[in-house]
Design brief:
This protein has 2 helices and no strands. The protein is mainly α. It folds into 2 domains: 56 residues; 51 residues. This is DASH complex subunit DAD3.
């Protein structure tokens, strides 16, 4: 596979670079280079958008995060209550079993 010299300006498309006749590219090579150029453009766009979002978070994102925070804290509270309920039930059943004459282990 032959290579072309890197263009001086990275924003140039591969089809805009001058190639000597001895260094012509196959259609597949040119297609791959064009895809890389499109990928570079897309990554640059995404980088710009992410930089803007990191500097100025949108109100929608902040509102969504606040809602998510509320839901997460609610789930955490419900989980703690469930665990407490399970532990309490185990203690009650353990005491009933001990009162019924069965041998129980002492918890330290």
């Amino acid at each position: 596979m032959s290579t072309t010299p890197a263009p001086a300006d990275p924003a140039l498309n591969t089809s805009q670079t001058s190639v000597s006749p001895a260094e012509t590219l196959t259609p597949l090579e040119q297609e791959v280079l064009d895809e890389y150029a499109r990928l570079l453009g897309n990554l640059n766009n995404m980088s710009t958008i992410l930089a803007e979002l990191s500097v100025n978070p949108s109100a929608e994102i902040l509102d969504a995060l606040r809602g998510l925070e509320r839901k997460t804290s609610l789930v955490f509270t419900l989980l703690k209550a469930s665990v407490y309920s399970i532990v309490l039930q185990q203690q009650i059943f353990g005491e009933e079993g001990a009162d019924g004459g069965s041998v129980s282990r002492e918890h330290s």
